[in-house]
Amino acid sequence: QVQLVESGGGLVQPGGSLRLSCAASGSISSFNTMGWYRQAPGKERELVATITSGDSPKYANSVKGRLTISRDNAKNTVYLQMNSLKPEDTAVYYCYGTLGVYNYWGRGTQVTVSS
């Protein structure tokens, strides 16, 4: 059973930065795709960024140029570097990974952008 555990969330002022981490209990090199979703209060969960096993990243238009996804297979960890944060980035951020036909999810980490 693969487990994904997020960390790095917190409270940050507008314009600030955070780095989220997603640590897997096993090797992530086998995952086809890993990524991050987020869900703000009263809104649907939305895709933020993905990265393939070939290190090809994709981003939602709302975060392009501000968020960067990366993966470290040696550490079995996926990162989301978040810069120039805005209040509308406030949400619970969830890590996920696709392995074959299965999707695995973390429990989420709260990011709050507020002055």
Question: How does this model look, in words?
Answer:
The strands form 2 sheets. Strands 2, 4, 5, 6, 9, 10 and 11 form a 7-stranded mixed sheet that branches. A 4-stranded antiparallel sheet has the order 1-3-8-7, with no helix packed on it. The chain has strands spanning 4-7, 10-12, 18-24, 33-39, 46-52, 57-59, 67-72, 77-82, 91-99, 102-105, 109-113. The protein starts with a strand and ends with a strand. The mean pLDDT is 94. The protein is built from no helices and 11 strands.
Which residues form runs of ≥5 with pLDDT under 50? none
In terms of DSSP E residues, the strand content is: over 45%
Over all CA atoms, what is the radius of gyration? 13 Å
Could you give the order of the helices and strands? Answer: EEEEEEEEEEE
The chain-level structural class is mainly beta
Helix content: under 10%
Return the average pLDDT rounded to an integer.
94
Please give the number of β-strands.
11
- First CA to last CA: what distance? 40 Å
The largest sheet is: 7 strands, mixed
Number of helices: 0
